[in-house]
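Students often ask why inverse folding is considered easier than folding. One informal answer: many sequences map to the same fold, so there is more than one right answer. In these notes we will look at a single instance of the problem. The structure comes first.
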């Protein structure tokens, strides 16, 4: 029987509010993952600089490429600010 590949998810927090319930859930998820599942926090949308085409023409900021690579390598993404969630609903 073939060995099952562990599932790897990444999570990105969209809320910038210090007391955000979504951010709290995002921080808790890695410790709550069941066996065979890993969850990696990617940080926050607040880590990204504002869009500036002059900067983009020189190359994407490292935070953007690092996060993009992690998303591409993952089996799934949970955006903690989106209306459609992988794990749960939007913050009320």
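Output (designed amino acids):
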């Amino acid at each position: 029987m073939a060995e099952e590949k562990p599932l790897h998810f990444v999570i990105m927090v969209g809320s910038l509010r210090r007391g955000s319930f979504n951010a709290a859930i995002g921080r808790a998820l890695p410790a709550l993952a069941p066996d065979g599942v890993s969850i990696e926090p990617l940080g926050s949308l607040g880590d990204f600089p504002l869009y500036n085409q002059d900067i983009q023409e020189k190359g994407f900021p490292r935070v953007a490429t690092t996060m993009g690579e992690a998303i591409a390598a993952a089996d799934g993404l949970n955006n903690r600010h989106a209306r459609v969630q992988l794990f749960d609903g939007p913050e009320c």
